[in-house]
Amino acid sequence: MYFVRVEADFAAAHFLRHYEGKCERLHGHNYKVRAWARGPELGAGGMLLDFGKLKTALRAVLEGLDHSLLNDQAAFDDDPSAERIAEFIFKALALRLPGAPLHAVEVFETESSMARYEP
């Protein structure tokens, strides 16, 4: 099995309406995002998926989130958790790269806290 991973980042604010604790207040993160592809066979040029294509698509998706209040995005239903952000990014990547062997998206809120979405 082959795996390919790219990283990009964005900064955004959010708050969690259905959470009791400090994260229910408005705060921000410098998010790191990792997008993974996976597959058993290599294509043209001996590649699973071109790093450049995956990174370009990821950056385009993150551009729509960067320096925003994530709660304003309907996709997050007022609770833009790292889990929901990862799912949103995965699905947006799938639309930009139809047929690509996308596998997972990881969203890091901090160096030690991340959520991963795999369909």
How does this structure look, described?
- By secondary structure, the chain is of the alpha+beta class.
- It has a single domain, classed as 6-pyruvoyl tetrahydropterin synthase/QueD (Tetrahydropterin Synthase, Chain A).
- It has helices at residues 51-63, 82-96, and strands spanning 2-14, 27-39, 68-69, 102-110, 113-117.
- Strands 3-1-2-4-5 form a five-stranded mixed beta sheet.
- Helix 1 packs across helix 2.
- The longest helix has 15 residues, at 82-96.
- The radius of gyration is 15 Å and the shape is elongated.
Briefly summarize what is shown.
The chain is α+β, with helices and mostly antiparallel strands and 119 residues long. Helix content is 24%, strand content 35%.
Q: If you average the pLDDT, what whole number results?
A: 95
Task: For the record, give the distance between the C-alpha atoms at the N and C termini, rounded to a whole number.
Answer: 18 Å
> What's the arrangement of strands in the largest beta sheet?
3-1-2-4-5
Radius of gyration: 15 Å
Number of domains: 1
- Approximately what portion of the residues adopt beta-strand conformation? 35-45%
Return the string of H and E elements: EEHEHEE
Please state the structural category. alpha+beta
CATH 4th-level superfamily: 6-pyruvoyl tetrahydropterin synthase/QueD
Write the CATH fold name: Tetrahydropterin Synthase, Chain A
Mind describing the biggest β-sheet? Answer: 5 strands, mixed
